[in-house]
Design brief:
The protein has helices at 5-15, 21-36, 42-53, 58-72, 76-87, 93-101, 113-149, 152-159, 161-169. By secondary structure, the protein is an all-alpha fold.
């Protein structure tokens, strides 16, 4: 397969799937948390459990995770500053002390500025990202799909022998 075509193909499959816009948007929003925060953390296991427990589009969660993972490292300085601000807040010092002394809470690594900052930012962004993804899926399925299918370039690609060949073998690669 051509490089870069896999994620685009997956996005198209997700947009054309039977999953509701809320399920796709939920996957995008929860994939955001896993993608923006350091991967090996207990809260990511909780998010993965939520994804598997309720009806959320797993494909959109995985695609969102990959997308947000690409930009996560660029945001590390922001995470660090935000995490330090939260962890050094005088009003929260007793909370942090109590959590640090609670059994098992150190495993969450909440006292790491990047973990705290990335989790805080992802929790701030989860609702706007869900709303944007929901609106995009509804808009795409409502009117954009028809407009894109009627574009001349799309018609040319679908008429090509390479596309027809791809359509025949795409189910073999699953």
């Amino acid at each position: 397969m051509f490089p870069g075509i896999g994620p685009v193909s997956n996005l198209i499959k997700i947009l054309h799937s039977d999953a509701s816009p809320a399920q796709v948007a939920g996957g995008v929003a929860l994939g955001l948390i896993i993608g923006l925060t350091p991967l090996l953390n207990i809260h990511n296991l909780l998010v993965l459990f939520i994804i598997l427990l309720i009806r959320i589009n797993l494909g959109s969660a995985m695609l969102s995770f990959m997308l947000f993972s690409l930009i996560a490292y660029l945001l590390d300085p922001l995470y660090h500053q935000l995490g330090l601000m939260i962890l050094k807040s005088p009003e929260l010092q007793t909370l942090w002390t109590d959590l640090y002394n609670a059994p098992g809470m150190r495993l969450t690594r909440f006292n790491n500025s990047i973990v705290m900052g990335s989790l805080a930012l992802s929790l701030i962004l989860i609702i706007p990202v869900w709303l944007a993804a929901f609106a995009f899926v509804r808009s795409y399925r409502g009117s954009l799909k028809e407009k894109i299918d009627n574009l001349r370039i799309v018609k040319l690609v679908k008429a090509s022998s390479i596309y027809k060949w791809y359509e025949r073998i795409r189910f073999w690669t699953v």
